[in-house]
Design goal:
Elements (H helix, E strand, L loop, with lengths): L1 E3 L5 E3 L13 E7 L11 E8 L5 E2 L4 E6 L9 E4 L3 E2 L4 E8 L12 E2 L9 E6 L10 H5 L4 E7 L19 E3 L10 H4 L1 E3 L32 H5 L11 E13 L4 E6 L12 E7 L10 E11 L8 E13 L8 E2 L29 H6 L5 E11 L6 E5 L24 E6 L14 E13 L3 E6 L4 E3 L15 E12 L5 H14 L5 E7 L14 H13 L6 E3 L17 E6 L5 E3 L12 E4 L2 E4 L4 E2 L14 E7 L2 E9 L21 H21 L5 E6 L7 H6 L6 E2 L12 E3 L2 E3 L2 E5 L6 E5 L16 E6 H6 L1
Parallel strand pairs: 9-10, 17-19, 20-21, 23-25, 27-28, 36-37
Antiparallel strand pairs: 1-2, 3-4, 3-13, 4-9, 5-8, 6-7, 6-11, 11-12, 13-14, 15-16, 15-18, 16-17, 18-19, 21-22, 21-24, 22-23, 24-25, 24-26, 27-43, 28-30, 29-30, 31-35, 32-33, 34-35, 35-36, 37-41, 38-41, 39-40, 42-43
Helix pairs in contact: 5-6
Amino acid sequence: MVSVGAAGAFAFTALPTASATPSASAVIAEVYGGGGNSGATLTRDFVELGNAGSTAYDLSGYSVQYLPGTPSSGSTWQVTALTGAIAPGARYLVGEGTGSGGITALPTTDATGSIAMSATSGTIALVSGTTALTCKTAADCAADTRIVDLTGYGTAVVREGSGPATGASNTAAVARADSLADTDDNAADFTAGTPTPVNSAGQTPGSGDGGGDGGGSPTDPGTVRVHDIQGTTRLSPYSGQTVTRVPGIVTGVRSSGSLGYWIQDPTPDTDPRTSEAVFVYTGSTKPTVAVGDSVLVTGKVSEYYPSSTSQSNTEITGPTATVLSSGNALPDAVTLDADSVPDAYIPTASGGSIESLALQPTVYAQDFFESLEGMRVTFADARVVGASDAYGELWVTVKPDENATARGGTLYSSYDQPNTGRIEVMSLDTTSTFPAANVGDELSGTTTGPLDYSTYGGYNVQATQLGTLVDNGLKQEVTRRQKKDELAVATYNVENLDALDTQEKFDRLAEGVAVNLNSPDIVALEEIQDDNGATNDGTVTAEGTLKRFTDAVRAAGGPAYKWRYISPTNDQDGGEPGGNIRQVFLFNPKRVAFTDHPGGDATTATSVVKTRKGVELTYSPGRIDPTNAAWEDSRKPLVGEFTFQGEQVFVIANHFISKGGDQPIHGRYQPPARSSETQRAAQAAEVNTFVKSLLAADKNAKAVVLGDLNDYEFSQTVTTLTADKVLTPLITTLPAAERYTYVYDGNSQTLDHILTSPAVTSFNYDVVHINAEFADQASDHDPQIVRIDLAKCRRH
């Protein structure tokens, strides 16, 4: 418990205040933030705790936390979880961030984190709990009863007593006296001096170095095992240290791409949090070991980050290996199935890194996978939920009942409950052809291999044994033809189509329109590029692209479509540089008329006006407020006015900004930041405002808003777009198991949408699955269509 004295100092009720007698409680004994910095001897920052009492102090569920010395509004406490206990009279060593300098490793740490502490100014708190503190002043922190002890050093704003401890630097730590006296005044209790880290075993640098070889001959194992390297968090307590003669059996060899091999200790420890395997990275050198070799590996432990927001792979780099024997039996593989993989996905850290949190493999699926990093895993008879791609990858689910779609996929329907049974599968066998699998197919039999982590999709099985593909016969859908009195409106993202693409691509996309969509009256196309594609020479017209496409549609049995679009200003609409992608309206002139109001261009906004003839657009085709910041480096919505059987219909084609830059759901920052959502919400608000202006002029106006919105039906984007009930998202009218237009990382999800205004009361809506679930795709998106009975709408 903590109370605030008259001077605002910390007073721990379990301790005598302003006293030089030893504390009966755990305290912060030493703090050093200069590890690995210029001039430092030690390679790593550390926090040392002490217990001067007569009984052990249990640290289960505790943490040490760090705050910059002068916190800003954006500063947050960083957390390192603790386990175990401090014995009476003993110390407890917490390893933190490493640097490129220094030559001496810490002794084996009792807990490990990755916090890059300042060498000169900061605050460390010992906290009962692992939730990040929120206080940023001495008074506010004094009121937080979770804080057991606190040390501010340098010029720290948050500290105990009259001032912070002084003298910390790249070469100096601040430490209490050996008595661990605690007067609740950091300036009085701590002095600066040479760092003297001590762990719970009483080891100091050199006496119990985690990188020590344990002596013995070159064929004797060293003192460090793989589970010591992996530790109980996502980061190795040995990161930056050299480990010597680590024993293991080679379980997989990667001879292309990131070269190396996995070793697994056949003699595991009893802690389910610690993986028994590790990847040995050989750089540009092909591995010379073979599966089944018993080896001793010496090298430097490192954490490799595939991307800036991903989790890391613990590796041994710069290795040398001694092969002791060959042909050894491999360690048993861990089974991945509905019983072993937890239902919760991943822990959270208020948007911060989860790397320092102790793993909970029985609670979170991603912790479970991390606790098996590099180990042999296996699954049997798994359904494919993400089709094979050009890189030799596919996705399966080991939980067959988890959010199954109507066609065999796994539905993604919530930010809060990602699908935990998905796992990516790659093959280490470079001599065999990777199977071409569609969603709903099955990998029959057993698939086994080391568990790896990649920035693309997260955890994956590097298969040394791949199950046999069973083709379950997934077919492309064909929607029904619209009836005579139905206006059929469709949307289709044709994936960067330009006049230089192959005829095969044109023919397949055209077949999708003419056959699978059954020749809609109006088609909004997204990602039509200019006539020379990615050649960046100022060309912006798309006449050649559209002629080839409409000719291909006609050859496939479709109508002779006409088109309308507005060319963008060169390189101002995002997408592939030089490609100038845009939305385009195709329409069948035998069924529907386009109402032209000339004058629209790349930078001129269209608007709604009332005339004696009724409501119309100032420009058709036209763009919605194209100079608004919401559309910066992004496609501007295309608006067109159509007439069908005497009824006026307004169509708004969209292609909102992509999700590029968002943090992955499997990354180290949790919950992940969806930074791209901000601009999409602004874009949705602009379209919503335009539709409101249309309905204000004519409450019975029939509007169809459609296209690739790059966001889910449960997203802020769609919520903003439909605000005040001006639009209805038709995807929500389907059964839940059918609500998807795209498959990504084994998640069937909705990115493409059709929405209608309130006057559209009689319709038939269909997502036509022809691409996203298939290994052989004409586009990565599925098209969709709405058939509107305008006569019935009028009667309603």
